[in-house]
What does this fold into?
Amino acid sequence: MQFDFDAKIEGDRSSSFKWGSMLEHNPQLGNEIAPLSVADMEFNTPPAVIDALQDFLKHPFLGYTQPTQEFYDACLNWQKNHHNWNPTKQMLVTSNGVVPAIFNAVRTLTEPGDGVIIQSPVYYPFSLAVEQSGRTLVDNPLKVVETEDGGHRYEMDFDDLAQKCADPANKMLILCSPHNPVGRVWSAVELRRLLDACFANDVIIVADEIHDDLIMPGQSHTAIMKVADPSEYAKMVVCTAPSKTFNLAGCQTSAIYIPSPDLRKRFVDGRTLLGDFGMLNSFGYVATTAAYTQCDEWLEELIPYIQGNYELLKGFLSSCMPEVEVYPLEGTYLAWVDFRAWGLSDEELESFMKDDAYLYLDEGHMFGKGGSGFERFNLACPRSVLNAALDRLAIASQKVRKGL
It folds into this structure.
């Protein structure tokens, strides 16, 4: 391999949000225990990005910024070359993150009291964006179905979705594609059915496609804009970013595609009312451009490494604690694991993980209905880190599993 994903990040990690949260809970923990919670990576940032930032700092400009043509070209060509649809420069609106963009879309494209549909269990800022803006949270829960091998996977409940979309009070749906935390990569057929349900009832779709590059071998992501007819673009917002793919969350940069001039104006005007003029930090433009133009090989090597970590997790738990089910990972680097067989409350499960196993994960109940009893494992880490975490889990679990 050209890139070393086994290498650990060196230096002080206290400025990291997930490391800081872990150390706040237990200041005695050292660098030998890494949290597997918040969705950024325990891998070094791609060398080409670091080189680009170092070159930039030789002749830096750290004043107010605007998107460069190189930035636009990098974003647009990435979508064309990797996701097979053709956005234009006019569609692209910059944002300092996908989460701020979703909050802004809910606030500017709906009215107070309007219903906004989510598909739980799902990334928890979706519900925050709805509830904190005075909109009505409407849940279209995913349903669990049994697979041929006796396991389980998630599917959309299209009958329930059709009913929710048909309610004239509901004006927007926030789609997670690929889905965080359950790891589904939606098929073109599934996305088309969702589009039909929404557009038949004039429901705006805000699609979070931030994990669209993190697709496991044998799977294929379908950009929702590839499924939609251009005549349907007027009711669509697509949120993308290099942050998950290339570990650039701290650069706070994203590319939001809004084809409709009306929706785009409302989105931009609403952002401006908050004093946000769409300026990214200087490093964000440089890092994004380098990631989208020089890091294909890095990504090609990353994907099988993540898959290897998933197979390690699945095999380990199947052998040591077969009552714990690891759901299929089609996309993202986040594994969804069912601990409900242990019979612990959410509080007991979280306490066990943190205080007994020294495992800092994202608790399933954070993701809403259907998440209780689950844990989300961040697999974007060196294999030695995951092995150590699983060893701690196996030792700590002996007591809780005695009664099974």
